[in-house]
Specification:
alpha+beta, Beta Polymerase, domain 2, Methane Monooxygenase Hydroxylase, Chain G, domain 1, seven-stranded mixed beta sheet, 55% helix
């Protein structure tokens, strides 16, 4: 179950950070002109700002309620189906076009206290606006906004560049997650080949494989999303901005390949673990067979001389008992050395 923090972060006009109660869903709402932040605006003022052709609006929301989403829908004339998806969350990664706007869903993942935290980020993108909506355990994008505002020559490309900056931040946070999974895989491989078989090792391999599959489900759809964003038939993104999405595409391909490699190594580790179990059982069986053979020699000799026959030549021989014991011990020692050399004992 997703754990939501008690407080969220809000960026003020001078980039100072304050804490607001979690009930406040508006993290930041600002207007930009030629890449320069004009100032913070109220939700009700958005429609007036959008009438100015040289400006665009960037809004950041955190767990908005239905009333807030209705205001956003009214100000930007967004499709009701997209608003419904943005409110319910728990969406698969996707990109959908609704008239003059795009609706994009991305799943987020980052490391927190040696655990993988998952969340969602939804985007509404238009020619002169971008709306980001965070759900679940998702990191704040205040640093991304600051970096964009510190590069007005890039931010003046419009909301398409803001979309790239946030998406790039999300994808970059996948790398530490994959690195942690690979580190855990290395530890498991060491346990498989260096330690005796343990049921816990098999369980850990299975859990790790499940985590890798979860990351795979949130990364694979990004390939299609980036392909569509790089196409030249999207009016919401300027032609100068589309090449930036190739960088995200390259990172996504690389992460996808890393995940596939990890999946294959996990499958191999699981098979190796089962093979080591079979080998261990075979070694135990050989050890049992060796000791059974050693015990079988004195058992056989004792069985022969334990028969109730009156005439047995060795019974009347003075050295019969020492000879029988010497031969028995000698056979047992010879057989033991043979088994020891062959690795059965």
């Amino acid at each position: 179950m997703l754990q939501f923090p008690t407080f969220i972060m809000v960026m003020e006009k001078k980039h100072s950070v304050i804490e607001l109660p979690a009930s406040e869903s508006v993290i930041n709402c600002a207007a930009y002109c030629e890449g320069v932040r004009v100032g913070s605006i109220e939700i009700d003022q958005i429609s007036e700002v959008l009438k100015q052709p040289d400006r665009f609006v960037w809004i950041g929301l955190r767990e908005p309620d239905a009333e807030m989403l209705r205001k956003i829908q009214k100000q930007f004339d967004l499709h009701e189906l997209a608003i419904e998806d943005a409110h319910s969350a728990h969406q698969r990664p996707k990109i959908e076009s609704y008239g003059e706007s795009l609706f994009i869903v991305m799943r987020t993942a980052h490391m927190k206290d040696q655990r993988i935290e998952m969340g969602e980020t939804h985007f509404f993108l238009g020619k002169n606006f971008i709306v980001t909506i965070r759900h679940g355990s998702s990191l704040s994008y205040s640093e991304v906004r600051q970096r964009c505002e510190s590069s007005p020559n890039l931010l003046k490309k419009g909301p398409g560049f803001a979309l790239y900056a946030v998406m790039d931040s999300i994808v970059d946070h996948y790398f530490p997650v994959i690195d942690e999974l690979e580190r855990e895989l290395s530890n498991l491989e060491a346990k498989v080949f260096r330690e005796k078989f343990r049921r816990e090792t098999t369980a850990k391999i299975y859990r790790l494989k499940r985590q890798v599959l979860e990351i795979k489900r949130i990364v694979s759809p990004l390939i299609d999303i980036c392909n569509r964003l790089m196409r030249f038939d999207l009016k919401m993104i300027d032609d100068d901005t589309k090449p930036y999405f190739r960088d995200i595409y390259d990172h996504t391909i690389r992460i996808n390949e890393m995940i596939d490699n990890t999946r294959e190594l996990l499958s191999a580790a699981l098979e190796a673990n089962l093979s080591m179990l079979s080998i261990s059982q075979s070694e135990i069986s050989k050890s049992f067979a060796g000791w059974a053979a050693l015990i079988g020699i004195p058992t056989m000799v004792a069985g022969i001389y334990g028969m109730n026959f009156k005439y047995m030549p060795e019974l009347d021989w003075k050295y019969g008992y020492p000879a029988v014991m010497t031969v028995t011990v000698g056979l047992c020692v010879a057989l033991y050395l043979r088994f020891k050399k062959s690795g059965w004992l």
